[in-house]
Each structure stands twice: as structure tokens, then as C-alpha cells.
Description:
Jelly Rolls; mainly beta; four-stranded antiparallel beta sheet
Amino acid sequence: MAAETQYTANTGLATVSVKNTSLNGSGTLVDILLGAANGTLIKTVTVKALSTTISPGMIRLFVYDGTNTRLLEEIEVIPGIQASINPTFEATVNLNLSLQSGYYLRASTEENESFNIIVESSNWAYYASSVRDDTTQYSADMGIASISTANSNLDGTGTVTTILTAGSSATYKGCSIPTITIKGTVNTTPGMVRLFIGDTGSTKKLFKEIVIPSITKTATDQAFEHTIVFEDDFDLQAGYKIIASTQNAENFNILVEGKNWNYKA
């Protein structure tokens, strides 16, 4: 980001303790962090157990956009018993996720055991009085959606779902996409999730295919997850779309992490 970008540390602190086995965003969830005006960069999430006896289970992280709650990440909890020389369970995951303004990071626990959730993040803003005309300004734009209708077509026909639409060209120059995450919420059979790029009209072009293996989800085994990492980001034209479909009638959450950009007027 530009030299005029100003960062403000934003530490999310919460405790989860109510059993919730759901992967679809229902049940008891706890708000951990809210995206700031331009967005919030979530660097790490640390999970620290408070209970002296820990059962095998899972901590789940979700993104809530004000209407929909989508599973983002599962963190496996290793069983153990706390003692004077045995620390409680602890895990830190590197998210490096740009959370859109007004969106929430939420969490749940598989078992009735208490865990602290600590989020390391920074809000970003711009020093307006000295921003140069050529300074790039970013605004977080997250696409989150669920797909579940079987579609074997490779030409963009059939049931497809728009996950993200890059900001309008009237305001933005494009959308920079560092990652796309595919997260299963059910048991899966061998198949495929397909990603398409759509223009401002009806054209759709196959972009990526993600192979889905056979996975049986349990309380201690994660559902399918795969993240596409673009080494130098993928720059999507303003108004263009990321669209998805699934080969089999199985439910997947798709999260596209984007940042629209423009320049000081």
C-alpha cells in the first residue's frame, strides 16, 4: 500500500464455550471482529483453551456479511489435560485476510469447552492532507457465497453462482484478488468445483478447476478445504465477476478475498 496509508491495531478478543456442531452458520456463534471503514487486515487468529480437560474437536471461523454466514476455516483441537507443567491447548493460524467493512469474523466450538479467540489485525486509512494524486487507495471487497446444485458444464451454462463482482469502473480501476478459498460443509465424493470469469455481460469463461476428494467429516476431521493463492494477486477488471459451480450436489462455501483500487481524485 501507499506510504500515506495509516494503520491502527485492532485486537479482537472473545470466548467461545457453547457446543455447536453446525458448519452452515446456524447455532451459537460469537462475534470476534468487525471490518473497519476501508477494511481490516486480519493477520493471525490464536485459539487458547481455558478448560483443564480438552476433548477432540474443532474451532470454526466464519465470515458474516450482514445476511449470510459462511464457514471460512476449521482449527483442529488436540485433546489434553492441563496440569502444573502441561499447558492448555493453543494454536495460531495465519489468515492474512482482508475483511470487508461491516463484515464480521465469528467463531464457534465443537464441544462445550471454553476457548479464548484472539485476533491480531489492523484497520487501514489514508492521510488525506498529503495523499499524492498517483497514490493507490484500496477498499476491501469480499465475495462469500454457497454453491450446492450439481452442474457438469464447462461453458458457464447451467446453475452457477456469482461470488464476487469487482467494483464499478465509475469508481474503481479494478479488483486485486490474493486468494480464493473453497470450503466444504458436508461429506464429499470425488468431483470438481469450477471457477469462471464473467464479463459485464453474459460471457463466462472457465478459469480454474479444483479437484474434490472423498472426505468424511467428523467432530475431529475437517471438511474439505482448498485455498488458491495468487502469487502476485489476480487483477480483475472493474465490473467483471468470479463465478462458481459444483460437479456434485454437495455444499461448498466460496470466499473471494478482493481489494478494489482507485486513485485520489
